[in-house]
Design a protein that fits this description.
Length: 262
């Protein structure tokens, strides 16, 4: 695998931004690792960080580079601050950046496939929300998306927030009455997705530890998705909101992705 630590300018954000990109490399002489790479443009996983993290965190806390090597899969890890992958009410348009501009920039800089069947997203916590949002809102561009311990119910952001936290939530999502049922509400997006033909619905993978403080809202989303007949794979087991759990689960996600075998 090759690692590119990239700085670039975003016209959408009006900012210089950062992303880390892992690229497949065909190798035979690396000790303990045999890299694989298909000819042509690479399938790509957009791997999203949580609320307190940045584009470097997956490389620092997991072995994602080693795990991805056997699949010939490129991994794009952008930084989006504490935006909750939204066009913020007070702040920057991070949803437009992640869903539209980032794939264009990454595809122009690196040999990434733009085919739906080669495009995936995954993330943890806030990033789990972001990954599911990409799949539910952009089903024609993502074949499969995965949420690890995702913060999936925006209503919970309002219910649990104190005065200071509520101010941040409202700066991101707006007032509760405009957020619930709107374009940032995964439950509403899931209902919209269910009206599409099955072939146009991306595969969904969801997992959460049973001791995680977000477990309740993960169960609620699971039941909602199942009631709508969405193609959801759900797994749970002992685990908290921590990197040991996510390091193990990202391996499960890579095994689950509908990748062509090299």
């Amino acid at each position: 695998m090759a690692l590119a630590q990239t700085s670039f300018f975003s016209d959408v954000l009006g900012l210089s931004c950062s992303m880390n990109v892992i690229l497949p490399q065909q190798t035979k002489r690396q000790i303990g690792l045999e890299g694989k790479a298909a000819d042509g443009r690479f399938p790509v996983l957009y791997l999203l960080h949580g609320l307190s993290d940045d584009h470097s965190i997956w490389l620092r806390r997991t072995s994602i580079e080693r795990y991805a090597a056997q699949y010939g899969l490129a991994v794009v890890m952008p930084a989006v601050a504490r935006s909750f992958y939204t066009d913020m009410k007070v702040g920057h348009r991070y949803w437009t950046f992640v869903s539209e501009e980032l794939p264009e920039i990454a595809g122009a800089l690196f040999p990434l496939s733009d085919r739906r069947e080669d495009t995936f997203a995954a993330g943890l916590s806030m990033g789990g929300y972001g990954a599911f949002k990409l799949g539910l809102a952009c089903p024609d561009r993502f074949a499969a998306v995965a949420s690890l311990s995702g913060g999936l119910d925006i209503r919970g952001r309002y219910d649990r927030a104190g005065v200071v936290a509520l101010a941040e939530v409202e700066s991101i999502l707006g007032k509760r009455e405009e957020a619930v049922g709107g374009p940032n509400d995964l439950f509403a997006l899931a209902e919209q997705l269910s009206s599409l033909p099955k072939a146009r619905q991306p595969l969904l993978y969801q997992c959460c530890g049973t001791e995680d403080f977000l477990y309740g809202e993960n169960v609620a989303f699971r039941e909602h998705a199942r009631s709508l007949g969405l193609p959801l794979t759900y797994e749970e087991g002992p685990g908290e909101h921590e990197w040991g759990y996510w390091d193990a689960q990202i391996r499960r996600v890579l095994e689950w992705l509908p990748l062509q075998q090299l």
